[in-house]
Design goal:
It contains six helices and seven strands; from the N terminus they run ααβαβαββαβαββ. It has 222 residues and is α/β, with parallel strands linked by helices. The protein has one domain: Rossmann fold (3-Layer(aba) Sandwich). The longest helix is centred in the C-terminal third of the chain and has 11 residues. It is globular and about 40 Å long. It starts with 35 loop residues before the first helix and ends with a strand.
């Protein structure tokens, strides 16, 4: 992250004791039952296809993204690097230290940065900091009970008029999750109060097995 981004110290993950005095509100009850660190350490990461989401790659060919961008649940950083390659200053955020280490092991792209931390427990300096949030695998991975908190966190960190670009996963092959499915109606209920829907489309390209199961939305913070 660039010097003007007011990031948390690298001495500990975001939301750790060293950062706990400056959090977004309502940070309680944000525990994810999945041990993502253990999954990365075991190499049990079937969601890692080795390249950026096809829907993101296609979007960037017609709509460059610039400014400060957050990718929550960034994993190995493929989406982060795709965004940074097109000129954005991108922060990848992930709970797993092994995921962050994996992302940093790839050749560095100018403009990319990674932080270990919890989306629901972020420093106050991140409030209204980002121009864009790109959602790909975070919303479907967290427990559905935390989705309202997810929307609140995204709303807090986006600048007024900031954009939210999402690839939503409707009906995953593993119905018990994660990933957890969703519906257009649930997404509208959660996001419409804070985010204006600008565009919606079914991506022309998806990872194998996700064809016809994804919906892209571009929203703007109201």
């Amino acid at each position: 992250m660039n010097a003007n981004t007011n990031s948390a110290s690298h001495s500990g993950p975001l939301g750790s004791a060293s950062n706990s005095d400056s959090r977004l509100p309502d940070s309680a009850d944000t525990v994810d039952p999945v041990d993502w660190e253990a999954r990365y350490q075991a190499g049990d990461t079937p969601w890692d296809e080795g390249y950026a989401a096809p829907a993101l790659t296609e979007f960037l060919t017609r709509h460059p993204i610039h400014g400060e961008v957050l990718v929550p649940g960034s994993g190995p950083g493929h989406d982060v690097r795709a965004l940074a390659t097109h000129g954005a200053h991108v922060t990848g955020l992930d709970l797993s230290s092994s995921a962050i280490a994996l992302a940093r092991s790839y050749p560095t792209t100018c403009g990319e940065h990674y932080e270990q931390g919890n989306l629901f427990v972020l420093p106050e300096s991140w409030n209204k900091h980002f121009d864009w949030v790109f959602e790909h695998t975070c919303f479907c991975a967290i427990p559905p009970a935390l989705r309202a908190k997810y929307v609140k966190a995204i709303n807090a960190i986006l600048k007024p008029g900031g954009h939210f670009l999402a690839i939503f996963y409707f009906n995953p092959a593993a119905p018990s999750g994660p990933p957890h499915g969703s519906t257009r109606e649930e997404i509208a209920m959660l996001f419409d109060p804070c985010f204006e829907l600008i565009e919606e489309w079914v991506p022309s390209g998806s990872f194998d097995g996700r064809e016809g199961r994804e919906l892209c939305q571009l929203r703007r913070k109201s």
